[in-house]
């Protein structure tokens, strides 16, 4: 397929991803949208279906299966891989690690201390918090990988990932409208909507870089990287990929009709669509090496946002006081969740089963950057030849 046709197919798919939920909403609401449908930021939770023990149990089985896959891959057909690790030359932690550590700790102290005299600063603290955390991880990668990290050898690509991260996250904020706000921002009303949007966009520049930094760190552990490299060889037939593609577009069209039933679609459908497009265009993605039995790129990039998710949910939760069900905080970007069927047993604000959503989101971060880089002809080493060096 010619490059121009590939670009056309990708752009067409992104336009459909944007339009289909909107067109579905027009039909679902007979053209008369609820007044709060496109309110941004959403500051109050919307009514959702109550907890369902059967659905919770079914998803819990999947949750346990995923955990077992990561801990005991041989249960799932992976072969044991013996890795002879040669002594790598290590480097001391770089200056930006220590600066970032001080900034990150300082931000946490100010955020968790809830100091009233610096309200203006707390409103915008997440930008510093997220980026200092990202650069801390990069510093560890630098030390473990003989002075090679995104900052030192791929800083231009890191900037590109940051810009791609804005649009990648804004898509999710847009999809969130149509599932009755799976997440919302209780203190979002402290800022005018345009100012909140600008702040959210700046903070989102770190969302995808965090995933790439964790992925880079995982790849510095040779035995961990090799643990998932000898699995089942899986090749999806074209008819199945086309079926999944059509179903994913159909689901995105339908989410306004069944927002509770399809609330999970925002985490899966965009990823499936982009992954299948890349596959058909012979562009490397974390799914590509599965055909050879190497699941490491897929499982490690998926894990990147599970680890990140636990971290960010932790510092988000403790930035607020929780009094009689009320959230009291000066953190403008504080977020909470309102999900159907499984809203129970929380770890911080997130329902425990909600962490499953971070698995496809980590993969989405990788797939989105590959797509973004291809469209803009940006050189990237996140490719078949160099994905393990990300």
UniProtKB/TrEMBL annotation:
The chain crosses the membrane at residues 7-31, 51-72, 93-112, 158-177, 197-218, 239-258, 264-285, 297-318, 358-378. The keyword Cell division does not apply. Keywords: Membrane, Transmembrane, Transmembrane helix. It comes from the Bacteria. This is Small-conductance mechanosensitive channel. It comes from Runella defluvii. The lineage of its organism: Bacteria, Pseudomonadati, Bacteroidota, Cytophagia, Cytophagales.
